[in-house]
Amino acid sequence: MPHRRLLGTAVAAAAAFGLLAVASPAAVASSSQPEDREPLRVASYNVSLNRADEGQLISDLERGDDQAAAIAQVLQTVRPDVVLLNEFDYDADGEALDLFRSDYLEEGQHGEDPIEYEYAYTAPVNTGVDSGFDLDNDGRTGTPDDALGFGEFPGQYGMVLLSRYPIETDDVRTFQDFRWQDMPGALLPGDPGTDATGDWYSDEELATLPLSSKSHWDVPVRVGRTTVHVLAAHPTPPTFDGPEDRNGRRNHDEIRFWADYVASPARSSYIYDDDGVSGGLQPGSRFVVVGDYNADPHDGDSVDGAIRQLLDSPRINDPEPTSDGAVEASELQGGANIYHEGDPALDTADFDDSAPGNLRSDYALPSKNLPVSHSGVYWPAANEPGSELTGVAPFPTSDHRPVWVDLLVPGLR
């Protein structure tokens, strides 16, 4: 399996190394903000462009896909400078990504202006990669639950990072292979039938099982004179398991990984990347944590405090982006939403009304040394333009909404 996939301007050089590169003009910048500084808009969007069969996303995009067109329209409306797309099926040749950029994003959708991303990054993920073990202990092997990350085929539920600004490809770090057992104090699940702790997986399984259900990426983006590290991930949902809570515990530790990564060198010293380089992020670096983290600080099924590991980090700023549409949806849909403790204005995902209800699942969390000018969630109320792009199940786009933050980056004008 290739270690990483880079997409950018150096077509010839990338081809020589078996990588794909596509160049296109950068999009026009948005309007100026305080101090005459142009903000950097960073977004996270679970686009649900995952399909049941390998290669199906490519076929759908080639044919013309209404969901992809609606997703593109949302992105053309929000116009992020850098955006992580979760649940975008990975293919080794980057065909789906090329098609989505050229035939959807770079074509105006329903009156919106096209948007072009000159730089992109994608890489293999653990979803659908057969472990060879019976990881769910159901007496069978080779099922989606026995993959290194749940999936029907390798690359399902993959990730893509799109950027108007250059990606410092030589400095990208990936953590696809970091083993869960190598995290000190990991919340490894125990077999409910024994008195032991952390014994759900055998020693042989733990020697293979990675922490990340997809991958963790540190993708440096050069914004003017400043490097902003985009820390991307998509932890497993904390459900679809049993009393051992193997998915809930893994979700907790996948979130913890970034909290440790941006902390002190002593706390992050155990971390190693896929190239064998140890340690976390250099102190003082500017970064944004993005992704669908499948964890709400108040509601849902995640382990208590899971997302708080990021929200309460002294290195991270939570701008608490909101929308009117989320409040309206919570009131109209009722169900589990009635009993939620969290502020519905912060919700980013429209889940089943019976359980778990709508949740704050998606995040764009900047480091405290990146001032925030604005933030938001694209969830229009029913009487607002764009509400037809969110709607109710079956959703024309996704059951998630894009969340974005505008950052004042030193040296960017």
TrEMBL record:
Asked if the keyword Cytoplasm belongs to this entry, the reply reads: no
Q: Which GO terms describe its molecular function?
A: endonuclease activity
Domain Endonuclease/exonuclease/phosphatase residues, every copy:
43-400
Origin superkingdom? Bacteria
The cross-references to SUPFAM superfamilies, in alphabetical order and at most eight, read: DNase I-like
Question: Which residues are the signal sequence here?
Answer: 1-29
Q: Which InterPro entries match?
A: Endo/exonu/phosph_ase_sf (IPR036691), Endo/exonuclease/phosphatase (IPR005135)
Q: Which keywords are on file for this protein?
A: Endonuclease, Hydrolase, Nuclease, Signal
According to UniProt, the name of this protein is: Endonuclease/exonuclease/phosphatase family protein
Its lineage opens with:
Bacteria, Bacillati, Actinomycetota, Actinomycetes, Micrococcales
